[in-house]
Design brief:
By secondary structure, this protein is an alpha+beta fold. The protein has a domain at 64-71 and 79-229. It is 52% helix and 9% strand. It has helices at 5-24, 35-46, 50-59, 64-70, 79-86, 89-101, 103-113, 117-128, 139-149, 154-166, 194-200, 216-229, 262-267, 300-308, 312-333; strands at 137-138, 180-181, 239-244, 260-261, 270-272, 281-289, 292-298. The strands form 2 sheets. It has a 5-stranded antiparallel beta sheet with strand order 4-6-7-3-5. Helix 2 (35-46) crosses helix 3 (50-59), helix 2 packs across helix 10 and helix 6 (89-101) crosses helix 15 (312-333). It is globular and about 65 Å long. This is Lytic murein transglycosylase B. Keywords: Signal. Residues 1-29 form the signal peptide. Residues 38-323 form the Transglycosylase SLT domain.
């Protein structure tokens, strides 16, 4: 036997024993299906510690109530039932009061970003009743539930979860483990998803942190910046009632992107209730209203609102709330409303 054969044999036996020990150890399963792959991606892209990421995700819990809420959205209602949810007198009055209390800030931000300030107010009015109802779900629970347990839209919500884990602390309103928001994982008064926080939220107050829960300048400017980056035109039309004559040409399904010049729709039998630029690109939207079918011309700014929420009923609620708020502000300024 060669002189070095015995040590090699001992080493081989030791390696075999080590392999057997490792093989006998229990395999640690993901707390959530697909967690390990996501952690590896985030660690690769950001350099964050995988152990810390896993510890964070291990705390998150799948919430059946979130899955249930996703399956009964308000947008499944007809316009006749959807509109009264958001166009209440209280929501209008609160919007008027909010606008008047924060007018200087709103109008400065509106001018800075080129966005009509009443629409900034209407967004936070529809989303969270001016910051009163921002959601009680843990954001991690919401995005883990939808990213890992909701196959219908899992790719989208998994991406939102990945972005959330990658955001620096300076872009979050507080510790990630305790952030709260909607059942869909949206945060703050404007209900921004993580991708929107990353791409559109701004530190308007200049304190080095984007705080969409506690900093009114950050909240309002982030909504304005979102609209500006999506093509809002200050002072441009949003939506206007149309009246169809008996021979109006059927136009098929509504398209969010304006399809034709207004004068073309007039030629096809759809008349505006007000004077509008005949060359303005528009689409025709039909809604099931309280008194029957309603026809609406929708324009570029309406399409911008649908990038916030793709439902045309949502965009119409924002538009009508913004109009009601501005009417109320004018009335109050002239001594006809609440002070």
């Amino acid at each position: 036997m060669p002189v070095n054969a015995a040590p090699r044999r001992i080493c081989s036996l030791f390696s075999l024993a080590l392999l057997l020990i490792v093989a006998s150890l229990p395999v640690l399963a993901d707390t959530h299906p697909g967690q390990s792959a996501l952690v590896q991606e985030v660690a690769r892209d950001t350099g964050k510690d995988p152990a810390a990421l896993n510890a964070l995700l291990d705390q998150a819990q799948m919430q059946q109530s979130i899955l249930d809420a996703m399956n009964r959205p308000a947008e499944s209602k007809p316009w006749s039932a959807y509109r009264p949810i958001f166009l209440t007198q209280k929501r209008i009055d609160d919007g008027v009061a909010f606008y008047r209390a924060n007018r200087a800030l709103l109008e400065r931000i509106g001018q800075q970003y080129g966005v009509d300030s009443q629409y900034i107010v209407a967004i936070i009015g529809v989303e969270t009743s001016y910051g009163r109802v921002t959601g009680k779900y843990k954001v991690l629970d919401a995005l883990v539930t939808l990213g890992f347990y909701y196959p219908k839209r899992a790719p989208y919500f998994r991406q939102q979860l990945k972005t959330l884990l990658e955001l620096p602390d300076s872009q979050l309103a507080g510790p990630l483990a305790t952030l709260t928001g909607s059942y869909a994982g949206a945060q703050g008064w404007g209900q921004f998803m993580p991708d929107s926080i990353r791409d559109f939220a701004v530190d308007e107050d200049g304190d080095g942190r984007i705080d969409l829960m506690n900093s009114l300048p950050d909240i309002l400017a982030s909504v304005a910046n979102y609209f500006a980056k999506h093509g809002w035109v200050a002072g441009g039309p949003v939506a206007a009632r149309a009246q169809a004559d008996g021979a109006a040409k059927p136009l098929g399904d509504w398209q969010s992107k304006p399809q034709w010049p207004l004068e073309q729709l007039e030629a096809w039998g759809y008349a505006p209730f007000q004077h509008l630029n005949p060359g303005e690109p528009t689409s025709l939207l039909t809604l099931a209203g309280m008194s029957g079918s309603e026809q609406w011309f929708t324009f570029n700014n309406f399409q911008v609102i649908t990038t916030y929420n793709r439902s045309p009923m949502y965009a119409m609620a924002v538009h009508q709330l913004a109009q009601a708020i501005m009417d109320g502000v004018h009335d109050a300024d002239n001594g006809g409303g609440a002070q």
